[in-house]
Amino acid sequence: MVSMCSRWILQHPHIKKIELVFPITGHSFMPADRVFGNIEKRIRKLEVITQPSDYTDIISECATVTKLDEIDVLDWKTSIQNIVKTPAQLHFKISQCKRIIIRRTKKQGDVMIRGELFYNSDTGAPRTICRKEKKAELIQPSTISKGIDVKPLKLRDVRNLLLKHYGENWKELPYLEYYKNVLFNIDEEEIQLLEENGENETNDIEEETCERVEEDVTLRI
């Protein structure tokens, strides 16, 4: 998010500063919180949801729906790997910040960022978050291709659930047409090979380096 905002402010010269404020969890009472609450209530009333369009219909009753297959989605994660420092290398701890201030620098093509631990006090030091000899203007995200390749073992699990709940003739049910299309190209030989090798769908989870959250035991009045 910080990298995205850094790139955005450089593309809009009339904006001098961006301030990101992180409300206390559970105490924000923002309009978005009410929207999420209303959506959750509607979903709870439905015992079974079989179509993605069902979710779209529910969300559209409470908010504006933007489908990802209708817009360009940018790959920010890859674009910052060799430009922006990792969370552990930053001059402030993101997990402890109440505010993050992004300001355009006099040096063209870069920004200065500081993290603040308090809502009303400015104690942080503004510095760049880019690596040595790098600037924020070098962040150039590419467009992610539409669609996603679902892993074979995940497809197997979905098929097993359909068999369990709807029986062998689940493909004949018109309201399950979506899953019929998704499972059309399922590779049985690949699934069998993965199972013989003892691979599990939950084993292949991408691990990301995250900043460790430290418990704050400070008493502030």
Percent range for β-strand residues? 5-15%
Major beta-sheet overview:
3 strands, antiparallel
Overall tally of domains: 2
Overall geometry: elongated
Annotation keywords:
221 residues, alpha+beta, 2 domains, three-stranded antiparallel beta sheet, two-stranded antiparallel ribbon, 30% helix, elongated, disordered C terminus
In short:
The protein is α+β, with helices and mostly antiparallel strands and about 220 residues long.
Describe this structure in words.
- With 221 residues, the protein is of the alpha+beta class.
- It folds into two domains: 2-143, no CATH class; 152-196, no CATH class.
- Helices cover 30% and strands 10% of the residues.
- It has helices at 2-11, 31-44, 52-60, 76-79, 152-166, 177-182, 188-196, and strands at 17-21, 74-75, 99-104, 111-116, 142-143.
- It starts with a helix and ends in a 25-residue tail after the last helix.
